[in-house]
User: Fold these one by one.
Assistant:
Number 1:
Amino acid sequence: MEYNTARDQMVIPEYGRNVQKMIQYLCSIDDRDRRTKAAKFVINVMGQLYPAAKETSDFKHKLWDHMYIISDFKLDVDAPYPPPPPLSTSLKPEKLQYHDKDIEFRHYGKNIALMLEKAVDYEDGPEKDSLVHAIAQHMKKSYLNWNRESVDDTLIEMHLDKLSKGKAKLKQDFKFQHTNDILGLNKKRKPFRPNPNGKYNPRNKNRPQQ
């Protein structure tokens, strides 16, 4: 019995070992025309393994690139696309730069800070007050998504002041939305209504647990 550990390593496992063996066989065909014709047949087989990807514009191009890669760039055929450079498979992609280093309170997100920057530029008046109040309410909701154990309205106000560098102030009559209202804990439960026939109704979701 032949175990996978004794076989050649899979180059692109998604296509399976049989496709890899077919591509290796292509490289052994001496006649170029026969080799090209056989390569096109293998490309069709590879495409049948991923029928949903046929909608993409570069689907065929990717298949030919994968065939060259599986053949270790030894395949020489008349392909509709040039082979990719061998070094392209060993190059590491560039590291993505994340712009979260300047986020002081990550549970609020970057958008809250950007919204406050716009809000402080408004002229003092009802429009600015309404915007600041809406941002403060959203900050409390975001805070509760991060920590539902406890939240202090005074803490939210302090964070608002710090994020806005003291330029966004809440009015004295402003009140934060109650925590229970945000979490939906104060919804009244529907009273249990027994079946008039005295039997359990499986559709009655409010049946008390026994």
Note: The chain is about 40% helix and 0% strand.
Number 2:
Amino acid sequence: MIITKTQISDMEKLYKAKLINSLSGFKSANLIGTINKKGITNLALFSSVLHVGANPPLMGVLFRPLSAIRHTYDNIKETKHFTINHVSKNIYQSAHQTSARYDENTSEFSACGLTEEYSQTIKAPYVKESKIKIGLEYVEEHHIKANDTVFLVGEIIEAILPDDIVNADGYIDLESAGTLTISSLDGYHGTKLINRLSYAKTDKDLKAL
């Protein structure tokens, strides 16, 4: 099958969204927790979280055009704090439900059956049921003119995760934590590690770790 730019342009909206979202492959499944100045919490599912850098430790989130109401974005700009919580098999249905359009006075935590959890460091709520949780502080954002989206960058202030999933070399065993991935808009997948490989160098053969 060959799909042309013209064919993509002519596709039905939802079909096109699912197709194009599938093309990039598996994506991370994360719940972003925020709170506004009135104390109302918000929780939203994102598949657009990515690693930006380790020194300083940065993560980024891509937001769709701000012409529509974006409670997560607005809360981050208000309080400067947000949390990223991995989605696992025990909560993926509740996580998916957070993508429904609740009004600003309704907390997705209570509406979707998830539990708020707080630390001494981050104002925003964590998801108690999540095994891997990251607290971040707003750093900067960049407007992508091509489609009017916003790429927001936060610095990792703290990370909360089980001791037994962090290897001696710093590798986090996401499979043991039960972290899921997303394909397209609605496909949830478990993972199975094939192998870990040594650092690639031009003068050395790869080795299994």
Note: The first helix runs from residue 5 to 10.
